[in-house]
Amino acid sequence: MAFFVLFIIAVASGIVGALVGLGGGIILVPATLYIGNKLELIAGVTPQTVVGLSVIMMIFTGLASTLSYMKTKTVDFKSGFIFFIGSMPGAVVGAWINKGLDLPSFNLYFGIFLIFIAIVLMIRDKLRPVKWFVENGWKREYKDREGNSTVYGYPIWFAVFLSFFVGCVSGLFGIGGGAILVPAMLILFQFPPHVAVATSMFLVFLTALVNSASHIMLGNVLWLYTLPVIPGAYIGAKVGAAINQKLNSTALVYALRIVLLLMGIRLITEALL
Question: Which GO cellular component term is one of those annotated (predicted)?
């Protein structure tokens, strides 16, 4: 029963993660904590082991998504590697901070973070692009299938600083970091939406490799439960990437921010009580 539930959660995480560039951990972590501690379907669930499971999953979510987006040529590999310069040490720092958190503290901080992300998703379409970062940064150009050209860019130092913070959050909570990075890419760096999501998932893959190594060394991975999670995440990411190329993801983002808000409130309430 536990394997089937984890497989379904992983598929859902992969679909959501690949569709909007979040990585999927933002679904897997609270869901696994719930079925482990409330429903008692999984033994040995702690904030550390859930994060360890999530970062293993994100290797395959990121890989499947990146392979799919490579076919549509929407992955900006150069930008992805620049972001990785910051996210790599950030992931190690986040994993180190995670080992000191007990369940109430993790629920409280993660709940606050989920509410923050829900608010970001609510207001990101209302925020006007900031032209300064493109005008004073390293410029990139993207041409879509119709031949329309879009110029975007960023100061490299700022991109590295931002991605370090994203890496810390990823290592701490076991999420992909796209919830922070994608809005920044859209609003500050003026990435085309499909390029932002595809590049974010490439960074999720790279950061998850470092995250996984850190959490494996800390003994945070329950290997038995990776068996249903890995194929579920891979399948879900393939589906999410395919949907991303065909549909407008506005409805999903709207539903996602409501779910995140409710989950955040529940985790904070549970931690305080």
Answer: plasma membrane
Task: Identify residue 141 by its one-letter amino acid code.
Answer: E
* Segment 42-90, tens digit of pLDDT: 887 889 999 999 999 999 999 998 999 999 899 999 999 999 999 999 9
Would you tell me how many other CB atoms lie within 10 Å of the CB of residue 138? 15
Instruction: Tell me 128's DSSP state.
Output: P
Domain layout of the chain by residue ranges: 2-272
Burial of 100 by CB count in 10 Å (0-12 exposed, 13-18 middle, 19+ buried)? Answer: exposed
**H, E, C per residue of 186-238:** HHCCCCCHHHHHHHHHHHHHHHHHHHHHHHHHCCCCCHHHHHHHHHHHHHHHH
* Cβ atoms 116, 191 nearer than 8 A: no
φ, ψ (nearest 5 deg) of residue 178: -65, -25
Q: Are 228 and 6 in contact (CB under 8 A)?
A: yes
Contacts with 109 (C-beta within 8 Å, 6 or more apart), sequence order: 101, 172, 173
Contact 40, 25 (CB under 8 A): no
- pTM here is 0.87
| Token pair 């925020």: residue | 127
